[in-house]
Prior knowledge:
The protein is mostly beta strands. It has one domain (2-74). Helices cover 11% and strands 57% of the residues. The chain has a five-stranded antiparallel sheet, covered by helices on one side. A hairpin with a 5-residue loop joins strand 3 and strand 4. It is globular, with a radius of gyration of 13 Å.
Amino acid sequence: MKEYEVVHEIFNECANNQMRDVFFEEVMIEDLERYIRGKHKDHDLKLEREELADGTILYHVNASGILQRYSFTEI
């Protein structure tokens, strides 16, 4: 199990509003995908994983039409 700083972004669906909701937390996680699926139990999920050169792991998430992004940085 590893400790991560997690940044969760929820993109606004309104065309005239470019703001997004952003949440931060530090958590111990064994399986990143299972962590995300646990947060969205009632949604149809599509996940796309991306690994950045600095070691950050991104998950681009479509949760029943709502676009979100999770960023995991190991602490």
